[in-house]
């Protein structure tokens, strides 16, 4: 176990997805706790998909600025819809200027067929995740803002939320399939948490051999 007095050079921001809350990150936070890493997991009121993703990104911007000020360098991880919200923050609101690492975890970065039934006039936040939506076209056609950020995409082959699962990856960076059986296990199962924790610790200057285990 690592000591709890270590100073973490890069605080970690965790962004939850649709129908979730920051509580979804409890297993990950428990695994990272011995490192002393500063972790911020804001609540974003998605209102069951009514709030557009760009509005959620603006809310995220306000909360990050209130917590860390305008210049603190950060690592960020987005689960499910939270990964697309983070892309809006990174690419449209200048978040790339202060971000070292971006982890996309089970996020419909190129859309998901499960969002197709959502009418835009009623559920714009869900409609933003439809394949070929105006928002995703804008993000994916100009990913240059991500070029100076270390990007990693993790996905689950049998994901029933991001369909088909290979749409859940960024246009840049590494891609890794995690050996889990469903969407939620991406952020709860040991087989998913092990590589995530190792990556997050290495990007804070900790040796991979110091990864804590349940």
Compact overview of the structure:
This protein is of the alpha/beta class and 214 residues long. It is 28% helix and 14% strand. α3 (81-92) links the parallel β3 (74-79) and β4.
Characteristics of this structure?
single chain; 214 residues; alpha/beta; six-stranded parallel β-sheet; 6 helices; globular; disordered C terminus
Strand content: 5-15%
Order of helices and strands: EHEHEHEHHEEH
Q: Based on helices, strands and strand pairing, what is the structural class?
A: alpha/beta
The average pLDDT value, as a whole number, equals 93
State the total count of DSSP E strands: 6
Annotation field: number of helices: 6
Largest sheet: 6 strands, parallel
Helix content: 25-40%
The coarse silhouette is globular
User: Uncertain spans, ≥5 residues at pLDDT below 50?
Assistant: 1-6, 208-214
Q: What is the rounded distance between the termini?
A: 11 Å
Largest beta sheet: what is the strand line-up?
Answer: 2-1-3-4-5-6
CA radius of gyration is 16 Å
